Amino acid sequence: TQTLQDIIGKEPHHWRGDRSGIEEFNGAFESLMGDDEQLSADEMQEFEDFLATIHFPPNPNRNFDNSLPTDLALPGHFSTGRFVAPGQPMPNGNAERGLRAFRLSRLDGVQCVTCHTIPTGAGINGTFTTVFEPLPPGPMGEAHLGIVSVDGSTQHSIKVPQIRNVHEKTGFNTTQVRNTAGFGYLHDGTIDSLERFVSEPLFSVSSLQQVADLTAFLLSFSGSDLPTGSSTSILEPPGESGQDTHAAVGKQVTLNGSGVPFRVLEMLTLAEQGVVDVVVKGVYGGAARGFRYAGSFTYQSDREGETATHTALTSSAAPGAELTWTVVPSGSGVRIALDRDLDGYYDADETDACADPADALSTPANSSCCPADLTGEGDVNTNDFFAFLALYQVQDPRADFTGEGDINTNDFFAFLAAYQAGC
What's the pLDDT tens digit per position in 59-88? Predict the structure, then answer.
């Protein structure tokens, strides 16, 4: 089964390439899914728009900076018998060398990359005379990725498959007496493993190590940070762009006063390059807060107009007030750390105004709030007084009752006035 990840713009569909676009699957909502009717044209467009947002997740075999590994262990991968006895553990693979073989090794006058274009591994979307000419989109905006006349197995024609999720299908190996996972490869799963696929006699591999290198590359093939083809090269034509996720996304470091690991600086370096966002969540100044790295060792907080330095955040992390640094996809840091409902009002500002940071319809502009009700209990009592003292002592911005930009005795007396007034 083909993945729904990054499927829009990679038409046609099915292994045979016999469905020109996602619209041709509309009947499945009724016949297969059990709906009373098919989707309307508008509903199908909404469905297609949703599918177009789905990216491939981070590739677990890439390095933290999304580069190819040069010494990747290959547990669960075994020799096929071409160079040594079958069933022997594969040596570690060098994915960079595997990339070179993928681009340069010849098979009947072509290269792997001639059909499996970089960066997705799918076929070419165009024709070639002396230069590559992209094909215009179809009537529903569909692309026309390449179909080959034979796959070397049972199909008379087959769409050139993208290869960005082959690492998820490992675990089936006929050199072993027991298998607990795996799907096999080709349209019908008749090839058990990647190492067997690249070891087939029709490929010009020269050693078990080259098989390992090619396997390492295929396991690390995620769709980005790879060389692109050329519009003038029939052997390495340009491929369609892909939607994948940087390998660092999801990585976390939690600080609690025991030092700052080098990994945090690696995160910030990637954010400076613009390939990811870095967010910080946790307890800061006695309250649950969020920050997004803004560059130059400065963080934007979830209160508009407030920033924090890298030193301030790292030095404030302590047991009971841990802060967690997380790498997130580029462009998502504002939603994750600062403005969760993306209504234009930052989360802490909404909380200060008794608005709901998770509800885009609830904003400081349409909610009433008693500023002295710091505990959010709905009334003003001694709990709020002690809450203010705690904020005042740590110079938390919520104690800035005068809006002067700093915390001083004017704020103390302003809070007392609101406290005595019951608001």
Answer: 999 999 999 999 999 999 999 999 999 999
- Rounded to a whole number, what is the largest CA-CA distance in the chain? 88
CB 105 within 8 A of CB 205: yes
Q: What CA–CA distance (Å, rounded) separates 122 from 344?
A: 40
* Cβ(313)–Cβ(256) below 8 Å: no
Type and span of the H or E element at 315 = helix 310-316
Summarised one tens digit per residue, pLDDT across range 160-208 is 999 999 999 999 999 999 988 888 898 888 899 999 999 988 788 999 9
Residues 6+ apart with CB under 8 A from 385: 419
Give the integer Cα–Cα distance in Å for 56 and 62: 13
Query: 60 preceded by cis ω (within 30°)?
Result: no
Distance CA 199, CA 9 (A): 32
The answer on pLDDT for 378 being more than 80 is no
Q: Please report the sign of the dihedral spanned by the C-alpha atoms of residue 309, residue 315, residue 316, residue 321.
A: positive
In terms of Cβ atoms closer than 10 Å to its own Cβ (0-12, 13-18, 19+), residue 316 is middle
Separation between Cα atoms, residue 77 and residue 81, nearest integer Å: 13
- Map residue 97 onto helix, strand or coil: helix
